[in-house]
Design brief:
Oligomer: single chain
Distance between the termini: 29 Å
GO cellular component, one term: plasma membrane
Subcellular location: Cell membrane; Membrane
Family: Belongs to the major facilitator superfamily. Nitrate/nitrite porter (TC 2.A.1.8) family.
Domain Major facilitator superfamily (MFS) profile: 22-426
Shape: globular
CATH class: Mainly Alpha
Strand content: under 5%
Radius of gyration: 21 Å
CATH superfamily: MFS general substrate transporter like domains
GO molecular function, one term: nitrate transmembrane transporter activity
Strand order of the largest sheet: 1-2
Helix content: over 70%
Number of strands: 2
Number of helices: 19
CATH architecture: Up-down Bundle
Number of domains: 1
Structural class: mainly alpha
Length: 450
């Protein structure tokens, strides 16, 4: 799939172009999705007491919240190839808002588990965000665009940890009990999700030159059936070993972030004798690093590509992954609150830079099956979170032990970067595309205010 009219610069304060409207709406939509996806996480101490959940049951709900996303992400990528990111995002946001509001009806472990399972589908929003920015931005800034849109979206993981306890407290001020309070609090993100879906349909378009149906009508885009259908797109991506190498890599970075988002608040609450609000605030710091950390990963990916080409992008990915694993092992051994917070921030920096570096590589694997590649790699993040979830559901394994073993797994996963290679012809082609995209602009991956 060859898309023309891509932007070669990110003008942050501009909303006049379809590229920048897609950029801003995609990160904001993904950000809001976190409020629905993980809105219940900082309230789990209250839910645990209300529903009488055990540690194993809480672990099962954590796994459920990310398990279904694996399947939905695989499907949503090829769906983007077919109907475009605009319609895909609209449907996901509007339908996803329903189980977010309905979780308040849960009155047992089983119903709560089913609600978190259904809500997990919202996590597929990440794939659409990365797809939309990939088709809107040129090679010299696509790593930065992907990383920033995803990073500012992932920032929702941090703001959710801070804002949801405040919403919960506000509901309690109305005079309701804690049992009813957490249920009413979840209605708020559900409503915002639905409204965001309507706005996405109204104000964005699929590509710089129009929506996919318009491009196909003008003959500028292949038909969405037959040789270029969803099955062929997925098959082309699935038979590429590099896609599965990145699947494992993303499992070890975004999967780890999702796991920390789920357990951080209750981890600090239980291990450092903090209040729910304080634990949520500290846990929120981990996600708030997305404000700049994932963007840095994309910027470095574009800068490494300036001198090292696609090999440079892969080299940077390996470095970020290795540092992430080492930092996580150190974090697991911290027993003093101040040190735990400090090392957590260092670990957060590298895990999010690794995520940005991963999707600095993804757009160059197979342009004709971009959605399928993004879907499979994106699904890896949730597959990693499911696997990590089993470390934290066992009654016999402490959170500290689970985090240490997870750090070892990340170090091993970093070796998968070695399997991501490109032919000399592809390297030369992308080097030329990079140079053409930069033109007279010497700033690789540059962001500007206007």
């Amino acid at each position: 799939m060859e898309i023309f009219g891509k932007a070669n610069r990110i003008r942050l304060l501009s909303f006049n172009t379809p590229q920048m409207r897609a950029f801003h709406f995609s990160w904001f939509a993904f950000h809001i999705c976190f409020f629905g996806w993980f809105g219940i996480a900082p309230l789990m101490a209250v839910v645990r007491d209300d529903l009488g959940l055990t540690k194993t049951q809480i672990g099962n709900t954590i796994i459920a919240s990310v398990a279904i996303t694996v399947i939905v992400r695989l499907a949503i990528g090829v769906l983007c190839d077919r109907i475009g990111p605009r319609k895909a995002y609209t449907w996901l946001l509007c339908l996803g808002s329903l189980p977010v509001m309905a979780i308040g009806l849960a009155d047992s472990f089983e119903t709560f588990l089913l609600a978190r399972l259904a809500i997990g589908a919202i996590g597929a929003s990440f794939v659409i965000t990365q797809y939309h920015t990939s088709v809107m931005f040129a090679p010299n800034v696509v790593g930065t665009a992907n990383a920033t849109s995803a990073g500012w979206g992932n920032l929702g993981g941090g703001t959710t940890q801070i804002v949801m306890p405040l919403i919960f407290a506000g509901v309690l001020m109305l005079g309701v009990s804690e049992t009813l309070g957490w249920r009413l609090a979840m209605v708020v993100p559900g409503i915002v999700l639905f409204l965001t879906g309507i706005a996405y349909y109204r104000f964005t378009q699929d590509a710089p030159n129009g929506n996919f149906d318009e491009l196909r009508a003008r003959g500028e885009l292949p038909a969405a059936s037959g040789e270029h259908g969803m099955g062929q797109s997925f098959k082309a991506a699935a038979k590429d070993i590099r896609v599965w190498a990145l699947f494992v890599v993303y499992a070890a970075c975004f999967g780890v972030e999702l796991t920390i988002n789920n357990i951080a608040a209750i981890y600090f609450f239980d291990n450092f004798d903090l209040t729910l609000a304080t634990a949520g605030l500290i846990a929120g710091l981990f996600g708030l690093m997305n404000l700049f950390a994932r963007t840095l990963g994309g910027i470095f990916s574009d800068l490494f590509a300036k001198n090292g080409g696609l090999k440079g992008r892969v080299r940077w990915l390996f470095i970020a992954m290795l540092c992430e694993g080492i930092a996580l092992m150190f974090f697991s051994q911290m027993h003093v609150l101040a040190l735990a917070i400090g090392i957590m921030l260092v670990f957060s920096l590298f895990v999010q830079m690794a995520e940005g570096a991963t999707f600095g590589v993804v757009p160059f694997i197979n342009k004709k099956a971009l959605g399928a590649v993004a879907g499979i790699v994106g699904a890896g993040g949730n597959a990693g979170a499911v696997a990590a979830g089993f470390l934290f559901r066992s009654e016999s394994l402490s959170y500290q032990q689970g985090l240490f073993y997870l750090g070892i797994a990340v170090v091993l996963a970093s070796l998968c970067c070695l399997a991501v290679r490109f032919t000399e012809a592809t390297e030369a082609e992308e080097a030329k595309a990079y140079t053409d995209a930069v033109g007279d602009d010497t700033g690789a991956g540059a962001l500007s205010l206007r």
